[in-house]
Amino acid sequence: MRIVVAEDLYLLRDGMVRLIEAYGHEVVATATTGPETLGALLTWRPDVSIVDVRMPPTQSDEGLRAALAARRELPGLPVLILSQHVEQLYARELLADGAGGIGYFLKESVFDADQFIDAMERVADGGTAMDPAVIAKLLSSGSSNRRLEQLTEREHSVLGLMAEGLSNQAIGQRLFLSESAISKYTTSMFGKLGISDDENNNRRVLAVLAYLNKT
Amino acid sequence: MRQLVSWSTSACVGFVRACVVVVVSMLVPAVWAAAAGLWIWWWDGDPWSGIVPFLWACIGTLALCRPVCRMIRSLVAKWTGTVIPAGYRQAGPVTQMATGYWWNGYSYERTSRDARMDQQWRTRWKDPATWRDLRFTAIAPITAGVICAIPPAGVAAAALGFGQSTPAARLAGVLGLAVAIGGAPYAWRSVEPVAVRFLRASPAMALADRVDELTAQRADTTVAQAAEIRRIERDLHDGAQARLVALGLSLATAEKLMETDLDQARALLRNARAGAATSLTELRELVRGINPPVLNERGLIDAVRALALDSPLETAVTADVQLRLDPPIESAMYFGVAELLTNAVKHAHATRARISIVRDDTGIVVDVEDDGRGGAGVRPGGGLDGLRRRLAVFDGTVEVTSPAGGPTCVRMMLPCESL
Question: Whose C-alpha in A208, B30, B108, B222 is 20 to 30 A from the C-alpha of A65?
Answer without folding.
Answer: A208
